[in-house]
Amino acid sequence: MNRTIGILGGTGPEGSGLAFRWARAGEEILIGSRDAQRAEVTAAELRARIGGNAKISGAENAAVAGRCDVVVLTVPFSGHAALLKQLKSVWKAGTVVIDTTVPLAATVGGAATRMLGVWQGSAAEQARELLPSHVAVAAAFQNLGAELLSKDENVDCDILVCSDDERAKQVACELAAKITGARPVNGGKLENARIVESITALLVGINIRYKVHSTGIRFTGLPAK
């Protein structure tokens, strides 16, 4: 499949971790940032790390959103709404947006184990409200830690995917399956993202108590594919 995956906020730990995993799996990645030069620096670092013919480049956020058919949001919640409002006019019809954002209180100086209240119910539902109707939205990757993504080892984590759009859900599941060791799990409607996002705060607390950095979730009893 010929596609370019855009990652807004791709210079941060979560975005660059996903870029690393997907580029290593053969996907073409376009990293987005407010600063195009910073995006290209991150892209160059990842190309050097992966080697071979890794297809990663960088650009300013608006260029990424307007060019790519699949765009992943990995921005802090504090800048989530402002970015989506800024980009409202650039999206192509049929774009799939996958939102990884979690409204942790840490983004506004609070505790990382606490959630902020979101009027729409979740960050993903806020994205749905702010994005044009011709853009499909899925929520995924909220419970997959950046530190684990940045490593070479396999992950041991299920990826819950929530969406009201079946095509968006399928695309997110395909990308989850490209992360070695990860398993996509259909999380149902987009409104369930409010549950999935809150799990992240729980995992952060577990990491702190057990002094680890890579806690994930697994669901038992699911049929083998």
Brief summary:
37% of the residues lie in helices and 18% in strands. It is an alpha/beta fold and 225 residues long. The protein has a single domain (4-210), classed as NAD(P)-binding Rossmann-like Domain (Rossmann fold), CATH 3.40.50.
Folded structure, characterized:
There is one protein chain. By secondary structure, this protein is α/β, with parallel strands linked by helices. It has a single domain, classed as Rossmann fold (3-Layer(aba) Sandwich). It is built from 8 helices and 8 strands. The protein has an 8-stranded mixed sheet, with helices on both faces. β4, α4 and β5 form a beta-alpha-beta unit. α4 packs parallel to α5.
Label this structure with key terms:
Rossmann fold; eight-stranded mixed beta sheet; 8 helices; 8 strands; 37% helix
- The CATH topology is given as Rossmann fold
Global shape: globular
Order of helices and strands: EHEHEHEHEHEHEHEH
Which structural class do you get from the secondary structure elements?
A: alpha/beta
Annotation field: number of helices: 8
Strand order of the largest sheet: 3-2-1-4-5-6-7-8
The total number of structural domains is 1
Count of beta strands: 8
N- to C-terminal separation? 22 Å
| Integer-rounded radius of gyration | 16 Å
* Biggest sheet overview: 8 strands, mixed
How much helix is in the residues?
A: 25-40%
The CATH architecture category equals 3-Layer(aba) Sandwich
**Unreliably modeled segments:** none
CATH class: Alpha Beta
Look at the structure and give the mean pLDDT: 95
